[in-house]
Predict the 3D structure of the following.
Amino acid sequence: MIMNYMKYILVVVAVSLVSGLTCTSCSDNMPDDETGNVSDGSLTIRVSVTDFEWGQVPYTYSRASDPMTPEMENSLKTLAILQFDSEGSLRRELGTREKPFKYINLVDETTPNGVLTYNITLAQDEFYHGENCAICIMANVPEEEVMKVVFTDQENKVNTNLKTFRTEKITIPYVTDPSANDSYGLQIGHVKHIYMFGEYTGDVTSSTQQLNIGLGRMISRLQIEIKSDVNVKEGYGLYLGIKNLEQEVYFYHGETSPNNLFTEANPFDILANGVSDEKVNLKEGVKIFFYVAPRMANNPENATSLNFWYTDTKPDPNNPDYTLPLGNHKPGSEVGDYSLNRNTYYMFYVNLTERSSE
C-alpha cells in the first residue's frame, strides 16, 4: 500500500550535458605534399576515440553505483574496416569473398584491455584506390555481428551496399545478470561491450598517405544523482526503473530510432543494501549510472524515462508513482528535445520532496 502523505514528487533542479559530440565521428586525410614524404602506395589509418569528460567517484551503494572503468569506456578491443567505392559497392580488397572486410583483434598479453589509439597500415594492393570512397570502422563489435551486416544474403555471400549499410543496426548487450560469465563483474545498468563507429568519406588515391578517423560511442552514459531531505518510512522502498529503453542502435546516426524497446528490466530498490552492505542515505545523495542506446523523441511520452516507485509492497512495473522523461529537454521549457544523443555523457540531478495528502 502506498501512503499518500509519503508519496514523492520529483523535481529536477539541474540538468547538465557534460560532454557530447554532435556527430558520430570525425576524419581527415594527409596527402603527400603536406607530409613531405614520398608515398610507396601504402595507406595508414590512425584510429582514436574521444574521451568522456568525467571523474570516477568511489560510491558503493547499489546496482550501477559506479561508472564503467576507463578500460571499458575508452578502449579499442577489436576493429572491423570496410571500404565502399563511389557507387556504394562494398570492396573486397581489405579481405576476401568470404569475409570482405579487415578484422583486427587488439587484445593480447601485452594489451589485455585493448588500446586507446591504433595505426592500421595497408599495403598498396590491400585497399581500393578511387575517388569519393567511404571507409567505415566498427570497434568492439564481435566478428559474427559484422558478418551479419556485410551480406544481404548470408548463404550466397551477396555483399551489402553503402545505402543498405547505413540502415543497419545492432543490439546493445545490456547487463541484466551480473553473475553471468559474460558480464565480467559488471553491474546492472552497464553494457558488456561499448560499440563504436566512425567513417571517412573522400578520395583514397595514390596521393593519400594517412587518414585520421575518430570513433564515437554508439551509446550514452547517464549519471543520475538523487537526494532528498524527506525521511523514508520504515519498511518502504524507493524503486527505480527505465521506460522506453532502446534495445538496438543504428551504426549511422539518423532521424529515427529502431523503436525495439527493452522490456526485461525490473524495478530495483535503490534504498536496499549495496554491494558493501552500506545503507543508502538520501540526504547525502546517491549516484546511479546507466549506459543506454540513443533515442529520438519529441515528446515526454516517447522519451527514455526514469520510473519511480515508493511502496511497502512489490512495485507494479506498469504503474509507477512518477515518471521523469530524460533527454536534451530543459526543465521548465514549454518546447524541448526529448532525444538522447549517442556518444554523450548526461548528468541529471533529482531532488525528492514530500507531497502533502490531498
The chain has a mean pLDDT of 79.
